[in-house]
């Protein structure tokens, strides 16, 4: 084992004494750029070398948007029941419990009110880490109640979507949330209260087919996957290759389904500017 010490090079440190770098210190983008996680956080989780937007959850969005990360969460302890006694590889209640333990979230959306650059706002933000950000009864109910809060207090509403679509374990109960949230948003529109919908990567399925695309302003982050069915399903259905960049936020913007795309580093200032314009 003497060769490990490399005494001829003056290196005498044993491999038993070597120290590995802790996991999670660095992030590598799909293009191969590497950035320290501390720098990534300070840059709103966007890699400065290639502008890659890292997927983040409600905790990070709330920290980016709410002034001094101060907010009051709404309905924070609401959890899913098991209306269909559904079971796939495991019973639905077991899946919910394990997801809560794994993510430290109660379900796939969090709602809160606070201030953004001094302006009152209600934000609902989805978490993809909780069963793929799927829309179940709790997601629909929490969004509906957040809209009720906006109506009561006449406060603008921001919805941040990130979802694989409806939650199959709740079947029809999940699909009903599309109608419920859409009806609530109609009340918000009648009251003249602004609704901004931010679509992030990915926003698909029943979420896209309901509240995600019903904003007074539909905006998105760069490079986000936005659509109803996935590109593989569409390709197999129509039997043709899809255009380059199909279902990216840039493609969706070009075809008129988005108002504009916002870099996450400018998200807070752009939204507050938009709200000021609407207030005036």
TrEMBL record:
Compartments (UniProt record) = Cytoplasm
An example Gene Ontology molecular-function term: carboxyl- or carbamoyltransferase activity
Query: Pathway of this protein?
Result: Lipid metabolism; malonyl-CoA biosynthesis; malonyl-CoA from acetyl-CoA: step 1/1
> Which SUPFAM superfamilies does its entry note?
ClpP/crotonase
Self-association state and partner proteins as the record states: Acetyl-CoA carboxylase is a heterohexamer composed of biotin carboxyl carrier protein (AccB), biotin carboxylase (AccC) and two subunits each of ACCase subunit alpha (AccA) and ACCase subunit beta (AccD).
Q: Which family does it belong to?
A: Belongs to the AccD/PCCB family.
Protein name per UniProt: Acetyl-coenzyme A carboxylase carboxyl transferase subunit beta
Q: Lineage of the native species?
A: Bacteria, Pseudomonadati, Bacteroidota, Cytophagia, Cytophagales
